[in-house]
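Hi everyone,

Forwarding the result from last night's run.
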Amino acid sequence: MKRFALALAIFGCGLAVSPLVTTLTAHAAGGTAPAGNAAPTSMRIGIIDIERTLYDTAAGKRASDAFDKEREKSQQELDKDQKELQKDAADLDKQATMLKPEVLKQKRDDLEKRFVELNKKYAKLERDLAEARSKAIQGLLAQAQPIIKEIAKSENVDLILDQSAVLYSDSKIDLTEKLNDKMK
C-alpha cells in the first residue's frame, strides 16, 4: 500500500513538472514556449522617485506644506501638554515634604495617569501624521498618474516603479526629472 501511494505521488509530481520541463526544453533549444505560456521577450522598466517629486515640484511643495502645518499644530499642542505636566510634577516635588503621604500618593498617581494619557496622545498623533503624509503622497500620485502614463508611452516603458521599492537601478532609467518638469 505504501508503494502504491509513493508511486502515485511520484506520478503526480511528474505531471506537475512536465509543463515546466517542456517550456524549459523549448527555450533551451531556441524554440518558443507553448501557447498560453508566452512571456514578453523584453520589458522596459522606468523608475520615479516620488519623494523627490514631493519636495522638488510646486504640487509636491503644496502637499508637503499642508502636511507640515498639520504636524506643527500637533507638535505645539503636544509640547504645551508636556510642559504643563512637567510643571505640575516639579510643583509636586516642591510640595512633597508638606503633603500627607496619602495625598502625595494620590497626586503622583494622577500625574502618572496624565503621563500615560500624554503618551497615548503622542502615539495617536504619530499615527494621524503618518496617515496625513500618506494621503498627501496619494494625492500627489493621483495628480501624477496621467503624467506618468504619458511618460511611459513616450519612453516606450512597460513598467514604472517608485524608487522606494527598488534596491538598485541605473540612473538611465530614472524618469523623475521628466515627471517633475510636467508637474504643476
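The CA atoms of residues 6 and 12 lie 10 Å apart.

Cheers,
N.
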